Amino acid sequence: MTIYSPASEIRHTLVRLPEETPSLDLLGVRIKTLVSSADTGGAWALIDYTAPPLFRGSIPHWHGRTAELFHVLEGTLTMWLEGRTVHLPAGGSVLVPPGTLHQFSNTSPDPVRFLAQFSPGGLEDYFPELADLVAEEPIWPPANPSRVLALAERYDTYSPTAL
């Protein structure tokens, strides 16, 4: 019996050496795209995210169709999940289904490094566009967040007021 999934459309082996991995430095964060949605036919993507000490992180947000898996490699990731705060140590994971209001940050004095998988893929493309927006703004966060919110919505990311 064959089970169809978008991942079954993957027709090539991907080998990406560390020096070939696309990376981006953004507001003190280092993001490496390990597997892009282009690599998986849109099924999923995987990034390696390193947040500096005491990093404020994302604003509370939710996704309409995207599920996120966070897996901590080093340090402790603070996750806020619909009113509940969880401190995930290295080796800890959390799966955030679509529609779940959540936020991540680093409340510790040490960096935190984690993997984030997006399914379906595509959310990894948000970060380079955000970097372009940051470069265009005279201060960050911007006084008028409308462009940031519009960008986020293009990547299935919504503020709590959109619930």
Unreliable residue stretches: none
Largest sheet: 6 strands, antiparallel
Span from first to last CA? Answer: 40 Å
- The overall strand count is 11
- Per CATH, the architecture is Sandwich
Mean pLDDT: 92
CATH class: Mainly Beta
Count of separate DSSP helical elements: 2
Taking strands numbered 1, 2, ... along the chain, how are they ordered across the largest sheet?
1-2-3-10-5-8
State the helicity in percent bands.
10-25%
* Structural domain count: 1
Spatial extent as radius of gyration = 16 Å
CATH superfamily: Jelly Rolls
Q: What's the order of the H and E elements?
A: EEEEEEEEEEHHE
Task: Assess the beta-strand content as a share of residues.
Answer: 35-45%
CATH-defined fold name: Jelly Rolls
Shape: globular
* Structural class by SSE content: mainly beta
Structure description:
- The chain is mainly beta and about 160 residues long.
- It has one domain: Jelly Rolls (Sandwich), CATH 2.60.120.
- The protein has helices at about 125-135, 145-155, and strands at about 25, 30-35, 45-50, 60-65, 65-75, 75-80, 85-90, 95, 100-105, 110-120, 155-160.
- The strands form three sheets. A six-stranded antiparallel β-sheet has the order 1-2-3-10-5-8, covered by helices on one side. Strands 7-6-9 form a three-stranded antiparallel β-sheet, with no helix packed on it. The protein has a two-stranded antiparallel sheet with strand order 4-11.
- Strand 1 (about 25) and strand 2 (about 30-35) form a beta hairpin.
- Helix 1 (about 125-135) runs antiparallel to helix 2.
- The model has no long low-confidence stretch (mean pLDDT about 90).
